[in-house]
Model the fold of this input.
Amino acid sequence: MGFFSGLDTEGYDRQYTDNQLVRRIWGYFSGYTRQLVIVMFLVSVIAVAGALYPVLVSKSVDALGEDITTQQILLLCGAIVAINLTSWCANWLRRRSVVRIVGNIVMTLRTDVFQAAAEHDLSFYDEYVSGKIVSRITSDTQEFGQMIILVTDLLSQIAQAILLAIILFTIDWKLTLFLLAFMPLVFLGALGFRSLARTTTRRGMRAMANVNASIKETVSGIAIAKNFRQESSVYVEFDQANQQSYTVNVRRGLVLSLVFPTLNALMGIVWAALMYVGGWSVYMGTVTLGAWFLFIQSVDRFYFPVLNLSAFWAQVQAGLSASERVFALIDAEAEVVQTDNKPVRALKGDINFVDVHFHYSDQSHILNRFNLHVHPGETVALVGHTGAGKSSIAKLIARFYEFQGGQILIDGQDIRSFDLHSYRGRLGIVSQTPFLFSGTIAENICYACPSDATKAEIAALAGQIGDGEWLEALPQGLDTEVGERGVRLSMGQRQLVSLMRVLVQRPAIFILDEATASVDPFTEWQIQQALNLILRDTTSLLIAHRLSTVKAADRIIVLESGVIIEEGTHDSLLSKGGHYAGLYNTYFRHQSIDYRPEGLDEFLRHKAEIPAD
Amino acid sequence: MTTLTATSEFTHSTAPSADRRGPVRWITWHAVRHGWLFLVMFLGAFGNAALAAAVPILLGQAFNIMNQPNPVVNDLIPLALLLAGTQLVRGVLQFFRNFGAELLGQRIERDIRNEMYLSLLGKSMTFHSLQPVGDTMARATNDVREINFLFSPGLNLVIGSGFFLLVPIFVAPRYHPSLVLVPILFLIGYSLALWQYLHELAPITTDVRRSFGRLNTRLAEAIDGIETVKGSAQERSEVERFGENARRYRDAFIRQGDVEARFIPLLLLVLAEAAGLLQSLLLYQQGLLDVGQVIGYFGLLQLFGFPTFTSLFAYSQVSLGVAGARRILELINRQNDLDQNVQGHAGPMRGEIEFRDVTFAYPSGEPVLKDVSFRVKPGQTVAIVGQTGAGKTTLVKLVNRTYDASGGTILVDGIDVRQWNLEALRRGVSMIEQDIFLFSRSIAENIAFGNQGASTEVIEQAAEAAQAHEFITGFPESYQTVIGERGVTLSGGQRQRLALARAFLTDPPILILDDSTSAIDSATEDRIQRAIYTAARGRTTLIITHRLSQIRWADLILVFRQGRLVAQGSHDELMRTSEPYRRIFSE
Done:
């Protein structure tokens, strides 16, 4: 629906100029010059045929003036059929070509964007919300493709209109001018309507957002309402939202219902005027009857292109904005820059931070002249308040972010000199909210498997975790489908799968950002077992949230504001009564088996007072 | 206003009952209720088409005037005025057609959404437990909207273009009877071509939609999990996978474009115009038609342009609307399971619970609980532990008859739950689920949700007992603070405490708590624990918990594994008898 499109697009602050965008877009067309030439040719054919058709019809009207022979009639109609057939075939071929060009270009664009996005470092992902990235790759590219199709369609119509105008001009320039004088009126009228429709649409959308939120809430709250037998009160709320939605939409519908009736009535007035003025021209002999007919026929051949033109600029702008959003993704600057590309084959796992400075894009310093040496095979636990720098250290080792000063040496070599892909292949990383892809558990465990890992090996490894009991709790064992993002598994099970993924990889360096969500004690025990298996053979850096983790570490590093303030084992640090002891009291105390929560003693006393029955 | 009938749990007395035997019948039933709008639409469409025919007819007459040897040009004036006038009237009629259709669509959307919501309110707790909210929302917004579009622009254009197809057939014979031939042939050819086209296009558009969905889903996963992707150095394989999906989409897109490019009705249109011209010229040659009539007839044939260009879009709107109606009807017509049992037991509840050999399986067949037996004395605190999928949540939902057991018996106060009056049973059992739902209202309103007339003191008392009073008064507007999307966001622990306060207010003899929140710091943990211990005092409490301290100090511990109760007893008993239990309490 060309005229009504693009009424609900939001404004977008443009940074690239139209010229830059067009030039860049043109770059994507460069491989298709042959097809473009064909399309241009076909467009010309369609324009000529489209212009000739009314001319031929008017010629036959002229022929009616004299005595027309059967032969003439057959000839004329035959020519008309031939022209229309040609036009239809040309249009068919044109659409086929255009859809292939656009389909291919959009696919190339999409692949380019995703490739660029995948290679970007994490600072990019901090800036852009993932939903927006996805919509740029799928929806904005789509919008871009639609714009191209629209442009070619409109070009076709306009070429035809211009050709027709030239023909009319040669017949009678005065009548042509009279006819064309109406077109700006139509154009302005259409623009006015679009602007009005836009306003009501925007207002409508805002109201609808509120209404949808109400509907969502009343629908989600049905279960609770039933729980408390409050069905009537939620119904009242729903009813209000429903009625409001109706009112808002009717108002918008009123405006949209007016558009075409008004424009059609306007067209009728143009016809009436042309009928009268054209009649005079016939009377004065400046045009023939046939030509008069031609002029009247031409009205809607100008009318519809002008209508579509009124929407054109907005649509092109929307398309350009879409392409800009796409290019902005590709062009985002990389922050993590490697100096060399040395492949990494085997690592012992020696990690050395030497006077490291680090801060995120626009924040104050996280690490300041930071020093830490982790020996191969050591298990180090990092503790500290939020913002102390724990996850930053882990992210720097994984080379997700760029640091601003000092050195990070892995096995004595500068981390910047590695080929990142092969370096990361030697790491095993589990983040706070473990991420699973839709597929089976086996597929997730083997996400980054060396190609020769077999199912039997995985099963054997799985069996090493607490007698493999965790697999029995799953309906199809290793073949259980986990759902999107692993939604069919519990948090604990997702953690187990992530740990298994690491076990299979057999990394030299293991980085774990522990989850804080609560897990049932049985799964918790299994996670412990899996963790122990990993810790045995790797250099491990654990951002600890669990008491069992800090107790199991060889060394605990206590961080505050990016500085190491205490170091030692759990018992030694606790007895010091310093910062660690405070952290323990705040974060770990309730995890101890001997924890007696507040209110427990009162509770137990109350129980003792009830007579047993 | 609310009545509990025999088979549904809630009915609204003023709602009429619709004909729900099939999507088309249902939509028709709704449309008929607004019959007068249909009339307006029909008259508007008819008038629009009829007056559209006035243009070629009047033009033809104008040509006849000018074709005479000594034409009087000013004879054209009345014709021109008539033309302008009819087109203005036509505009008005077209507006009536459009707005009539629009009103119809909006009213039906509103009515259907209302019907759907009332039906949902009447469904059992079982239904709501099984039906994902996202799916319901999709039907309540998208599918209902499709039904709206079915009428406007769908039926609007279908009826409109229908008249445009008929008018030439009825008007052409006034020139000469044989001129009806070409329009009729066109109508037949057009219908066949359109049917074939839609038939061919349908599977392709489904394919396009599906491959777009697949492209989107895997992409969203890769982007959400980019840390995992990069951490495992899998960028290249993700790009390859994406490229494959993008290729598949492109192929479907091109296939659709190819079919759309081959739009036969357009070809039929120009052939019809040429054939009509041929026939009318031949008739003119034989002296049966004059110039004006030839022109008029040609213009009439051009009326076919409107249906040719809009029909495709219109018919697909109609079919989408019917599909949407089918989905909504499926939801509404889904059977209810439980009945109210108004004659059942309704005395005061002591809070004794017993399970005897209880077995439960979902309608889809997966078994969840097997041979579960235990007994809880009134006032006891029971900790239910086990891994996910062990059946814990399902178990507690059997107590308030959200589900009914497939085998065995559940007794409350020694009476089978199926013999209790459902309302009385539910009044005595209060459940706090894992996902706590709070309304976008003030805190006070949320706490008093079950007891809408509660006084401020009572509300504050409940909040104090739930350890929530402190953080509530910390907000600038205290108990009047609005929470939710348009207000303040609460943490998991805060939501849990509000839910506890809400439960306190109803003072149930049996409290069921599905506790899965975790506290990051010990101070919050202390508060939550305190609130739970306060809640558990003086009532039978079933807690699904991970917290070691709650498990340890419970009166009775039930250990589940894969739907079976594998161990029960006090902490000391279990430490003696169960190896897995002992493990979780070891260092």
Summary: The mean pLDDT of chain A is 87. The CA atoms of residues 409 and 415 of chain A lie 6 Å apart. Strands of chain A lie at 351-358, 367-374, 379-383, 405-410, 413-414, 427-430, 509-513, 539-543, 555-560, 563-568. Chain A touches chain B through 167 residues (CB under 8 Å).
